[in-house]
Amino acid sequence: MTTFYQLSATSLRGKPISMADYAGKTVLVVNTASHCGFTPQYAGLEALYKKYAAQGLVVLGFPCNQFGKQEPGGAEEIAQTCHINYGVSFPMFEKVNVNGAATHPVFRYLKDELPGVPGGWIKWNFTKFLIGRDGKPLRRFAPISTPEKMEAVILAALEI
Hints:
The protein is an alpha+beta fold. It has four helices and six strands, in the order E-E-E-H-E-H-H-E-E-H. The chain has helices spanning 41-52, 75-86, 105-113, 147-158, and strands spanning 8-10, 16-18, 26-32, 57-63, 128-131, 137-141. A four-stranded mixed β-sheet has the order 4-3-5-6, with helices on one face. A two-stranded antiparallel ribbon has the order 1-2. Strand 5 (128-131) and strand 6 form a beta hairpin. The longest helix is centred in the N-terminal third of the chain and has 12 residues, at 41-52.
């Protein structure tokens, strides 16, 4: 049986990253997009990351172009949107698919563990998955769930 820590992904800069690098941390995985109505959530995600990183929170952003083609650019454009427009300092990964035959293994695993909607499909950008320090997926949040509204659940996962 696969666990979160057995998975890996490629960073926005092209470096392979093992999810085992985040063992012992509370992880928030988010499928993102630069041209989406929810894109301003980057600011809230960054605020949570900065506020709780020292306590063990890490946010992992995975750009996706499957919803309304709202992430059309390449790595450089994505980085510019994230870093310059929203000050994102949390890890960002290369563009992935979160649904369909080419679903990235991280999202295949998370959807199997926390199916959410019938069939487990991700409905839109900024769907979020909270993973406990033990690597067990804890909760799935809809795109409309703002980072600020998730803070209490994240605090409980951090055990602060």
